[in-house]
Specification:
This protein is mainly β. It has one domain. 0% of the residues lie in helices and 39% in strands.
Length: 80
Amino acid sequence: MAKPDLSKIYGKIKIVDSFSDYDVQVVKNFADLHVKIVEHFPDSPGKWKIVENFPDFRIRIVENFPDFKIKYVDYFPGVR
């Protein structure tokens, strides 16, 4: 399966245990996407607002075989 277009994965994110849109591995190095958790304006690649209801994407955190890898950052979120 081809990697998803990471430049489109932003907005309201719900962390789930099943029925995810994407499986994601959290890493410290060599991430595909740098993610900043925000409270307002999750309107560009890598900006995620964690929500319980009406998510744009459902994400499952996995240890193995992710669709892509993320790193949490405080500055400069986006595709790497």
